[in-house]
Amino acid sequence: MFESHIAVGKSLERIDGVEKVTGSAKYATDIRLENMLHAKLIRSPHAHAKVKRIDTSSAEKLPGVRAVATILEVPKVIEYWFSLRTEKKKKQMFLRDNVVRFMGDPVLAIAADDQQTVDKALSLVKVEYEPLPAIYDPFMAMEETDVKIHSRGNIAFKVNKDYGDIQEGLKKADIIIENTYRTSKQKHAALEPFGTCVALYQSNGKLTVYSSTQLPHWSRHYLAGALDLPLNRVRVIKPHTGGSFGGRCGLIHGLEVMCSWLSRQTGRPVRMSFTREEDFIGTETRHPMTIRMKTGATRDGILTATDVDIVSDVGGYGTHYIGVIADCLSTGVGLYKTPNYSFSARAVFTNKSPCGALRGYGNPQMNFAQESQMDIIAEKLRMDPLELRLKNYRELGEIDPVLNEKILSNGLRECLEKGAELSGWEKKRHQWKRYQRSVKATRNRGIGLSIMLHGTGAGKALPDPASATVMINADGSVNLITAAADEGQGNRTVLAQIASETLGIEFEKISVSETDTETTPIDCGTHGSRQAYSGGLAVQAAATEARNQIFAYAVKELGAAEDQLRIKDGVIFEINNPDNKILISDLMRKTQIEDMNVCEQVIGSAAGVAPAMPGYYGAVFAEVEVDTETGEVKVLKLTNAFDVGRAINPDLVKGQIIGGGVMGIGFALTEGLLIEDGRILNSNFSDYRLLRACDVPEIVPIIVESDEPTGPFGAKGIGEGCMVNVASAISNAIYHATGVRLTDLCMTPEAILKGLEER
Amino acid sequence: MKKGKLRVNERRKTMSVYFQIEEYHRPRDLAQAVDILSGFGNRARVIAGGTDILPRRAGVKKIDNINHLVDISRLGLDYLKREGDHIFMGAGTTINTIGASPLFLSGPYGALSDAAGAHSTSTIRNRATVGGNLCNASPCADLALPLLVLDAILVAAGPEGKRHIPIENFFKGVNYTALNNEEVLVEIRIPLCSEKTGSSFLKLRRHQTAIDMAVVNVATSLNCRENRCEAAGIALGSVAPVPFRAKKAESMLAGAKLSKGIIEKAAVAAAGEARPIDDVRSTSAYRKKMIAVLVRRSLESSMRRCGQ
């Protein structure tokens, strides 16, 4: 490590801050191309139906209508990552048929000269449906074999995985707790709705797509497959993005492929932009899960067995359903050193909007169940929940059985200790309890905690490449070329900091490329809390190579041995003779321009996959006040401590912790789509309850740095984990305040009051 | 372009999830507003802050035939003043203006201040008006409840001139009021109460976000003399098609010596007068229970505010 850092560990200004604050940053919705057509979808009014007939004849006669595309010819993308591995599997990625599988499923799109013509044309289209029986409940979908949502059946995926001997583990247990937990269909609710796309298919056979995807290179793969184009004929450009939270992990259902198809038919650019309502009804959500969990522990609070059975509701189309379940497994098994773990899960199709990735993947669901169980065990054993965690968490140096990786950094104990201290855990835990016993108060306070583990990246489970190129210019400035998609969290800034630190060149001299598959090397995208780590490693490696090249020139120039050279603030100098020095800019100008026999640019490149998938950890301490007559819950304060390995940019990390806290409170208390007979009832922001600024309590972010040895400057992830265990901590706090254990999310006042009455 | 009339921008019309209008009228004065309204009958709707009408989605039967909006936001209807034995409130007064007004800080009118503060979020309250809150006639309209217990008089202007409607006669059904198509609500008059009066408002939400509408909301007022109640007002929201006064419960309190017991009894009686329904936000049973809790708490608070 460096003795003193010039960029890492500093809350430097975001590279896109000024652009965004002044409104000049271009988002997908701002993109206008010459001669552009506008397109819109007709969506199914049925939750499950066969499209019998589509009559677009009158619509097509309308002047200004340029193209029509229907699901009969345009494929839907229904499988992700896993299918990229073989040609045979790749074919499974795409589905062309005449069935609509949820209310809002696209049927066709029309492109026309302007939006009014599109609207008019759509009203002239006649679609004849043959309604099919619809299934909304995954348990019914598993039993009902007459109704098949997909030809392969309603069970999309199932898995059983055992570690140790579950029966043996249960035998050793002094107490066994069993409960069933249910989680809601949470929506990402990103500030910029999903999704907007502009596609241009040119006569030279090249397709350019502007889309706010989190995975530009993977989206290129999917588009190339769907349109049967070679990869080098597909270019994906990702403009600035107003939040993704996993919902842009791939293509948006009915968006990019449809747009590209229409553009290919017309040779003109085609723009399609979903309304907020379409975002709510037609794009992916979190997987609602029913989790039955049986946990055994000894009298001393040592976990002996965990038996889990999960039913995950995939909705009408599956994309991330395997990964989400794999995440339940890895985070569930990984967190505690339970010797005997039995895990089974089924992912089931239903006639509801499709589910996909949402911050935390399957972890928030799993964590809600597991951390509720831990709280119950602590209560039964009359043990401090904090102590129970400390006794059981998987520590530094142990092997994670799912990833089969040694834990090389783990700051969980420090998270717990710091969080407990700053929240006043011990005092509040006792005082508030005493207060509740002695006074018949109508407003009870409670404090609860929960912990979590989340993986950084997905290298062990998926093809997870990252790459970067660092080019040093003749004036000593640096171009960093990367496809790392910044969704608004600031990872391009973090990567620039890593480049600056590695090169020894000032942060202000680094500029980061646009996110464009044409000009950037392959990257798996921004998902799985991976960019600071995986992207960071690639940048560090590329910058190291560039630095070595600079040194090679400097050795000649300064006549010093390479190991005697150092770079600081843009100056290369001999360590024991600091006067023997040269500005990088002078050296680079020399080699690039002045020495006409050389004319070489320093270019460092790196590509590959991160060596590990390090876990990052966190502890949340939630304080609530419950009105025992109405069941209302007020979150008073969250104290959230997260081990991020190393905070490259502390302010950006804090931003994540606070934002994750807000999203976690939503998951706990206010969010979730309400569905009645397949229809989503709260498809806008006045009915879907997101926390407003005025609803957000004090959130105290605590950064713990455990120095991950495989990470760039010790960094690992943060993006997802910070929302994972907020709901479980709030639920545990509600229990502390009231003695009511809630097993369903979101937790409503009515459910709490019911619990109080049954207490 | 005709004066007082703005053609709707073509691009605006394409926001098709929301209902669409043909013409947006901005009358110069009240007479012109009434004129325009008279010309279009049930096809026109008054718009002030727009926080109720603009987010309405297409396909809602009640507004499907509306294609003219008449903007009354520049007719000088934004005022608050105390004169003689009334407080006069322009129908175009924003909720935040009411919430910030010193007129309603004291005991008798405290419920108005409470309700204004509990209404949605500050950004919405900067646009939403008291007149809009009443004329939208939602069963859960927050401002309706304090005005009900304060016996407000609503002044409507129409082709025949002005008329006074006691607020109790104003709400006729969900989104349906005593106003005729060509009438505009222009003013709310609140009779001055005795200083021995206290009022308060309480609201319960399903999801604890400020924007959330009420599952149950209540306002109460008490006029007390040495712990004896001379008059009581209890208004309930979200538990019937219209906000209303729980008269039986009120009569239990009138003339009674105020005690924990009688307040509890009145609160239970008030719950008995409600006809809540089951919907996505709550069950009828929960709402009934909550009325009793909220009315009790509100009465206790009103009692504390008496003579403040």
UniProtKB/TrEMBL annotation, chain A:
InterPro entries: Ald_Oxase/Xan_DH_a/b (IPR000674), Ald_Oxase/Xan_DH_a/b_sf (IPR036856), Ald_Oxase/xanthine_DH-like (IPR016208), AldOxase/xan_DH_MoCoBD1 (IPR008274), AldOxase/xan_DH_MoCoBD2 (IPR046867), AldOxase/xan_DH_Mopterin-bd_sf (IPR037165)
GO molecular function, one term: iron ion binding
Entry-linked SUPFAM superfamilies: CO dehydrogenase molybdoprotein N-domain-like, Molybdenum cofactor-binding domain
Domain Aldehyde oxidase/xanthine dehydrogenase a/b hammerhead: 22-133
Cross-referenced PANTHER family: XANTHINE DEHYDROGENASE, XANTHINE DEHYDROGENASE SUBUNIT D-RELATED
Name this polypeptide is given: Xanthine dehydrogenase family protein molybdopterin-binding subunit
Organism per entry: Candidatus Desulfacyla euxinica
Source taxonomy: Bacteria, Deltaproteobacteria, Candidatus Desulfacyla
